[in-house]
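Input/output pair, single chain:
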Amino acid sequence: MKLYEFEGKNLFAEEGIPTPHGFVAYSPEEVEKNAAAIGKPVVVKSQILQGGRGKAGGIKFADTSGEAKELSKALFGMKLRDYTVDKVLVEEKLDIAKEYYLSVTIDAEKGRPLIMASVAGGVDIEEVAKETPEKIVMETVDIFKGLLPYQARRISYKMGLTGKEALETAEVMLKAYSLFRKYDADLVEINPLVVTGEGSIVAADAKVNIYDNALYRQPKFIKTRDHYDSEIEYEASQVGLGYIKLDGYIGLCCAGAGLTMMTLDLVDHYGGKASNFLEFGGAQYRNAYNALDLVLRDPEVKVVLVNVFGLIARADVIAQGLAEAIKALQPKVPIVVSLRGTGEAEGHKTLKEELGLIAFWSAEEAVKEAIRLGGGK
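Output:
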């Protein structure tokens, strides 16, 4: 779950990480009021759940509150990377002397928290990694010991920092790591971490992502429609389904995330294109209905491929739920089913007797048939 910049900065402030003086505004009038309260030149930053705002024109600088109000009129309602701007962050404009990069994330290969830091802040870290990888300092953290003060200082020194600047940067690292652990984050990023003309260290930006599977431990964070790329993805989440829109023509309904990934690979291998990732798990009849309903809403879908390998969730039970869903929804496109697992024979019988649908015993053959019916190879 991604947090807005202002939400991330609120967490930073709670943790003691310095941030610019600022306010959230929901109208040009509020922008003017907040800019006047700040009493100095400001930056007005669109609040969306993706990066790249500056390059897309979503950040404006103003010397007066009146200018801030006028500039913000172009931001409200602006479409940025599929998001419509409905709120902005009004902050004091910083006197920037230096820009650094700092993040805490997960090293998936080592299964440990990873500190990444660089003196090349203010730009995409991917560009730095590609063009000047020697400027990035990376160090993993023992999850049981946590980030220790000497380790944070060592990272600062490796960045090339010295004196007060190195110590204060190390302190920000420690606080960022504390926030990372406290809120079950999988990313805490500050880019840029600014050194002002007066020598102060300030987090000029904030990107915080909370690990979705830990949200039950974090009741202060609630996913809303804003956190999903489409209405279908949001609706899927409300009924316990994982749905991601893709750009193909074969609608997928698979019983499990791993099986879905395998099916995507098979579709690609045989020359087809999937229209979505969707997994429905468990022996719930309703999930089969909701899964099929969501997939059929996509006008690009020419054929639906259902792949079931039922072990704990029995294949015969899923087949019964699927039969009921198809009868209720009456799809206008062909349905191809591969059904294996516990009670598979009974499941095949159910689909044949109730729908006249002959299910495949082989996922590969089902994929080939779906591609053929969809007009592919």
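The first strand starts at residue 22 and ends at 25. The chain is about 35% helix and 25% strand.
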